[in-house]
Design goal:
81 residues, mainly alpha, 3 helices
Amino acid sequence: MHLRRPGLELPPAGGIETARPECYDDWRQGDMGAVLNQDFTNMSEVTVGLHSRQFDGHRLNRLQEMTIWNYHRALDEFLFD
């Protein structure tokens, strides 16, 4: 009995068709999707805010981002201690 699992098959001999890369002289010409377009649009204002005197550090979402924080903490401990 063979079990089929999606994603575990070998790619076809000719390779997998991929999207062609798109290059733009100005990043605003490309469409990155609604979320990334919005993020890129307000990036300069966010950068200014990060460099202001009132910014005392970022705060992580305890439910979603603490896993990422712990991952980086463990990497730092492994690499530098």
